[in-house]
Write a structure and sequence with these properties.
The protein is of the alpha/beta class. The protein has 12 helices and 18 strands. The chain is 27% helix and 22% strand. Bound molecules: copper (II) ion (CU) and zinc ion.
Amino acid sequence: MLEEFGAPLNVTDVELAEPRTGEVLVRLEACGVCHTDMYTASGADPSGYAPTVLGHEGAGIVEQVGEGVRSVSPGNRVVTLFSPQCRECEHCRSPKTNLCLAIRDQQNLGYLPDGTTRLSRGGDPIRHFMGTSTFAQYTVMPEIALARVSSEAPPDRACLFACGLSTGLGAAINTAQVEAGSTCVVFGAGMVGLGAVAGCRLRGAERIICVDLSADRLELARGQGATDGWIGSPDTVARVLEETGGFGADYTFEATGLVDVMRQAVESARMGWGLCTIAGVAGKGETLDIVPRLLITGRRVCGSSFGGVKGRDQVPQLVQLYLDGDLNVDPFISHRIGLDEVNRGFELMERQDGIRSVITFDR
Ligand code: CU
Ligand code: ZN
């Protein structure tokens, strides 16, 4: 429970009501600890609220389904989706976007689609977080926010696909649609950046330059297919231009959320057709400076939310890449912790110790 901004999370018992129409009760098996959870817990997010149960990178087993639920049934392994897919709204019916419109407003306010909560304590409702609230043994979620994945997918790996990893993979595969033989630059080697490196490799990129401040993370990037690992500096743009005949890279990716780095990613994109994909999330109110002449001369800039991934359709396919041996996600799990150690997960993240702490739940 996030009881109060800036205070450690409180591990305690709360009530969880049965799933209603279109909802599903999930028993969590694993859950990643992500930056967005810590950002909200800190109180820095102006749209955050408390009390709430945090967590959004969950994998688990369907325990019980409410009325009308057809796409999952008890015993199925699922990955939680903070970015749902109703398959019916205008956006879901378009191949151009993954931003489902079905439950956005209620989800942002902390409610399930019918405008109420299943979480409560002593009769007082507790709001859900990102429609997921997976720092818990059980959660109730809308059916449209669950991706059914292979039962063979180990939950501690599967949960990584609930957020940053799919965001990075999708940025390269869906949003940029990297072409074989191209040169790519990925700024940032956290979960999103490493996913983007892997996505560029899977699309057949010839050269993949990863830029980060940590030599350890650049080593992980090499393991995902980066051909070059550069320590980031103000000279990075000049270096990209120098190594690409003065033109820039075919594809650049920004995965730090820092607007100064975003600017470098734009300026590193190739004249004529370079595409810069912004996958990092900047702080509220921040702006990105772009010299318009860069756009007139053929560079393009686009954003990618959850990698453009339509979750129920595509997360199972991305998990399959792991099961088929095309993607090694094991090095991303740096620590396995229990739910009662969730605050330690935040501390490890603050110290930038490893890529992901994963909470695992014993039965
Ligand atoms: Cu996340
Ligand atoms: Zn939709």
